[in-house]
Design brief:
Layout: H1 8-21, E1 25-27, E2 33-35, E3 51-58, H2 70-84, E4 92-99, H3 104-117, E5 122-126, H4 129-141, E6 146-149, H5 155-158, E7 165-167, H6 172-186, E8 191-197, H7 200-213, E9 219-226, H8 234-241, E10 247-251, H9 254-266, E11 273-276, H10 283-286, E12 298-301, H11 315-327, H12 336-354, H13 360-366, E13 396-403, E14 406-409, E15 414-415, H14 416-420
Parallel strand pairs: 3-4, 3-5, 5-6, 6-7, 8-9, 8-10, 10-11
Antiparallel strand pairs: 1-2, 12-13, 13-14, 13-15
């Protein structure tokens, strides 16, 4: 879907309307600003009339360091908006990135540093279910928006005790439902072997899959878990290969995803249909295994693949390639994690523009009142929608199969809200 090109004049108009609705603006101490009337007394830490400061926490090192590519795409987007669009509503974005090494205690330390020392307006993108789980109590106690976290755990949308935290990508339970539906239609008697990360992430997706196949002819015949501290998943893969399963569900993060794919390729005596979850489906995970060894694997996605030629002349993809080369020239624009970063930064831009007041409370409310918002880097038919009883911004996905040197989409976009009904614990 083509992203609307909103120039500085239009953005300014939107902000003037929002300011008018809030009763005008007045200065507060410390150089921050607040609004009178509706916005009076709301938090303006980290935002002024000319700037907005965001903080992100990623595993730039450690077992999930492949995700360190995401903030590069975010940087490209914000640098572009700052230099060429006068920021977001006239506010230049400063994006401060911290490394937690995929360690929850470190994530808490970095969240405190960002909030208390860096004085960020919001935590934008804390990556990983374990790290976000470790930090969301702190963020909500401090009433700091923790928006569009980079994890699909279902609790970000079902929990009601943490209104300041919200996800962005499709949740793991809905993703699992997509795979379950695919197997029920294409392999109704499938015997499935499952490898999953032994934490909230892995258990969430695996649990959703088991519930989705309940009562069908699809059965789980073997399961193996691994810890993020494990050096390898080779022992688990050997055990799964002995199960006789004809489908392998790979619920891993990038490093272990590559290992599982490589182990599957080496085991010539086991040739299951290989389904890999979205978070480990990047080309950077597949390339080390050898493209010849990953032909026919299946996954699901919701944003455009920079390697897919069908998007060659897509206005958003053209803009993405141009600005990645201009603002982050050392980064490879064909890496989908960069595209993910661009997409989520653009989503933040939309949400911030829609805020009735430029305050922490305004952003908190805005991300929970999205009405079919279109973002240029999302697949056609995929939009952001939230509401009082719906804390899941993106709930549509499309299946894809790896062929040659890239993923190929197949079937229709699946709106999991309509297809499977509301998500419950």
């Amino acid at each position: 879907m083509r992203r609307s090109a909103i120039g500085c004049t239009a953005v300014t108009a939107v902000l003037l309307l929002a300011t008018a609705a809030c009763g005008g603006r007045e200065e507060t101490g410390g150089g921050a600003t607040t609004a009178a009337g509706q916005c009076q007394g709301q938090q303006t830490t980290g935002i002024t009339d000319t700037s907005i400061k965001l903080g992100g926490i990623y595993p730039l090192s450690g077992p999930a360091s492949a995700y360190g590519d995401i903030p590069k795409g975010i940087k490209a987007y914000f640098d572009y908006v700052n230099a060429e669009k006068n920021g977001i509503g006239g506010r230049k974005v400063e994006f401060v990135v911290r490394d937690d090494g995929y360690q929850p205690p470190k994530a808490v330390e970095e969240a405190r540093r960002l909030v208390e020392q860096e004085q960020v307006f919001a935590l934008f993108q804390t990556l990983g279910t374990p790290s976000t789980t470790a930090t969301w109590d702190y963020a909500n106690q401090r009433k700091v928006p923790q928006v569009f976290v980079a994890t699909g755990a279902s609790k970000w949308g079902t929990d009601t005790a943490h209104p300041w935290t919200i996800g962005w990508q499709p949740n793991y339970v809905s993703e699992a439902r997509v795979y379950a539906q695919y197997l029920k239609q294409e392999r109704p008697e499938a015997k499935v072997a499952v490898l999953y990360q032994n934490d909230d992430f892995g258990k969430d997706l695996f649990g959703g899959f088991k519930r989705a196949i309940d009562g069908s002819g699809v059965t789980v015949v073997a399961e193996q878990s691994y810890e993020v501290s494990d050096p390898s998943v080779d022992p688990q893969m050997r055990n799964l290969a002995e199960s006789g399963a004809d489908v392998f569900l790979n619920i891993t993060t990038p490093r272990f995803g590559s290992q599982a794919l490589a182990a599957d390729a080496k085991n010539t005596g086991w040739n299951p249909l290989h389904i890999v979850n979205n978070v480990a489906a990047s080309i950077t995970v597949l390339r080390p295994v050898g493209f010849e060894n990953v032909q026919g694997i299946v996954s699901a996605t919701y944003y455009k693949d920079p390697n897919d030629p069908q998007w060659k002349n897509d206005p958003e993809m053209v803009l993405y390639y141009e600005k990645m080369k201009q603002y982050v020239p050392e980064a490879d624009p064909t890496v989908p994690y960069h595209t993910f970063g661009w997409a989520v930064a653009s989503s933040f831009h939309k949400a911030m523009e829609a805020a009735k007041c430029p305050t922490r409370e305004g952003l908190r409310d805005s991300v929970r009142a999205l009405g079919g918002v279109q973002v240029g880097m999302l697949l056609p038919g995929v939009t952001m929608t939230t509401g009082a009883d719906d804390g899941f911004p993106i709930e549509s996905m499309q299946l894809m199969e790896f062929k040659g040197e890239r993923w190929e989409l197949f079937g229709d976009v699946i709106d999991t809200r309509k297809e499977f009904g509301p998500l419950t614990d």
